[in-house]
Design brief:
CATH architecture of the largest domain: 2-Layer Sandwich
Number of helices: 10
InterPro entries: GHMP_kinase_C_dom, GHMP_kinase_C_sf, GHMP_kinase_N_dom, IspE, Ribosomal_Su5_D2-typ_SF, Ribsml_uS5_D2-typ_fold_subgr
Family: Belongs to the GHMP kinase family. IspE subfamily.
Strand content: 25-35%
Organism: Lysinimonas soli
Number of strands: 12
CATH class of the largest domain: Alpha Beta
Keywords: ATP-binding, Isoprene biosynthesis, Kinase, Nucleotide-binding, Transferase
Bound molecules: adenosine-5'-triphosphate
Enzyme class: transferase
Structural class: alpha+beta
Length: 311
């Protein structure tokens, strides 16, 4: 057994993600889909503080709507802490405090960021020192987006999205995020996509079961060129998300009319991520969308993955 450390607080943070490219393969026999994703971590962070305790508990506060966040063992932060304890043989627990800034069920991987930050914070608190590869294995068990919240930067994800390889990226991209006051359930958006594909064209244009990221996206990231990236961005989940929430179409149009190079539904939505040409364009867009009473946040990417913060 590993001995318990002293009673202190460890603080970690992990970023939200934008899917600048997301292609969904044909539905596999097990009901899942292989995907090809280009992820970018952006400067919107979840903060997690952990303190040694006999048991596992979680409290949640923050700047976003919190009613859909469970505060029992269903919270992914508790699952992460328990998984690390089971893996390392640590016998104690942790009191976990989450400060949430990423919209819940927003398609930006907020829960995944909580899980990644909790893994890192508990490992430091308990002194379990799990090797990075083992941490990434635990991350994968917790959810397809958790490994990316751990590594951050810009990366390509294949398989379920968790088979990650870093992508070469230059410079900083300026994003303006339009947050919705409702959530979209990821499984529901995938169901809508499957239904759409069953109804249309599947036989004429069969869907590749093993999709890949378009080379234009890789080139745009490598060049650090927002105009190129705006032209190459794509999300197969956008059409089903817009079908479930038609009001998002107007949001995208409004952003594009106000100077965004392009707007894209992030992941399964409903957050819309607008790419701006530069900081001035991002600031102008932020003002215009706020004036239209949208809840907007500005962010830059790429940023680092989960990190310990020294208070
Ligand atoms: P993704 O983009 O990775 O599909 P998301 O950003 O759309 O995810 P999250 O906010 O990460 O969605 O997760 C939402 C779901 O997970 C909700 O059903 C919520 O009840 C559950 N959940 C469990 N733990 C958490 C947590 N710590 N924060 C937010 N949601 C959580």
């Amino acid at each position: 057994m590993i001995s318990r450390g002293t009673s202190r607080t460890v603080h970690a943070k992990a970023p939200a993600k934008i899917n600048v490219f997301l292609k969904v393969g044909a539905r596999l026999d097990d009901g899942y889909h292989d995907v090809a994703i280009a992820y970018q971590a952006v400067s919107l962070y979840e903060e997690v503080r952990v303190v040694e305790a006999d048991d596992f508990s979680v409290t949640v506060s923050g700047s976003v709507e919190l009613s859909r966040v469970p505060t029992d063992g269903a919270n992914i932060a508790i699952k992460a802490a328990r998984l690390l304890a089971a893996k390392t043989g640590y016998r104690g627990g942790a009191a976990i405090e989450i400060s949430k800034h990423v919209p819940v069920t927003g398609g930006m991987g907020g829960g995944s960021a909580d899980a990644a930050a909790t893994l890192l914070a508990c490992d430091a608190l308990w002194g379990t020192e799990l090797p990075r590869e083992d941490m990434l294995d635990l991350a994968r068990k917790l959810g397809a987006d958790v490994p990316f919240a751990f590594t951050g930067g810009t990366a390509i994800g294949t398989g379920r999205g968790d088979d990650l390889s870093p992508a070469l990226a230059q410079g900083t991209f300026q994003w303006v995020l339009a947050l919705a006051d409702f959530g979209l359930s990821t499984p529901e958006v995938y169901r809508e996509l499957d239904l759409h594909r069953e109804r249309h064209a599947q036989d004429i244009y069969p869907v590749d079961p093993r999709p890949s990221v378009d080379t234009d996206v890789l080139q745009a990231l490598r060049a650090g060129d927002p105009v190129m990236l705006a032209a190459a961005m794509h999300n197969d989940l956008q059409a089903p998300a817009l079908h479930l929430q038609p009001s998002l179409t107007e949001v995208i149009e409004l952003g594009e009319q106000n100077g965004a190079l392009a707007g894209i539904v992030s992941g399964s939505g409903p957050t819309v991520a607008f790419l701006a040409a530069d900081l001035d364009a991002a600031l102008e867009l932020q003002v215009a969308l706020s004036a239209a009473r949208l809840n907007v946040v500005r962010a830059t990417g790429p940023v680092h993955g989960a990190r310990i913060v020294s208070d």
